[in-house]
Amino acid sequence: RISTNEQTIDNQLKVLREIAHKKGLDVVREISDEGISGAKGRNEREGFDELIKGSIQKEWDTILVWDVSRLGRSLKHLVSFLEDIHSAKCDLYIHQSGIDTSTASGKMMFGMLSVFSEFERSMIRERVIAGQQRAKAEGKHIGRKTNVTDGVITAVYQLRQNNVPIKRIAKDLQIGVGTVYKILEKVA
User: Contact, 63 vs 85, CB < 8 A?
Assistant: First the structure.
């Protein structure tokens, strides 16, 4: 998995192919999620979902992965993933950590790494929020630019004065229903 489209999985795949060869494993399939955050769940990560389904359907008995963070950043998702693949008698090898879940110590280490991965994600989130708060304090705008201009505000007010329904105003002006309500609250 890689988080952005500017990154590449090529280096990870090269090393994992070499490891499979050294372990005498046949590579059945290479699965990746590109440009998707590890914080997303299985329903939002097609490759991750495919990996779990293939394990359950016994398409393979071992999964090689570059790093635990490539599997995910949520402890809940990682623990669920490990339970799913182990119930299917599928093992996991994590290259960067040298963890092999076919052993008891490997299972324990995977659990510990999952905790640290989730902690790292929380720290990143806290830094992003702190940066946004600093930017707001400096008067900078955070988020998408608004398409609500003085003309839109006037149009909303006039249309509502003419008893045009809220949903119709939103559709005609190509703004959200919530935006119409917010404008009307400010005008009132």
Answer: yes
**Greatest Cα-to-Cα distance within the chain, rounded to the nearest angstrom:** 76
Predicted TM-score (pTM) of this structure: 0.53
The 3-state DSSP class for residue 175 equals: coil
Q: What is the pLDDT of residues 44-70, one digit of tens each?
A: 788 888 888 999 999 999 999 988 777
The distance of Cα 183 from the centroid of its chain, to the nearest Å, equals 33
Residue (of 53, 80, 82) closest to 65 by Cα position: 82
In whole angstroms, what separates CA 145 from the centre of its chain?
24
- How far CA 26 is from CA of 52, 99, 105, 146, in Å, comes to 18, 19, 25, 53
Integer CA distances (angstroms), 71 to 30, 110, 187, in order: 14, 11, 49
Find out whether 3 and 35 touch, Cβ atoms under 8 Å.
yes
Q: Which of 55, 7, 5 is nearest to 31 (CA)?
A: 55
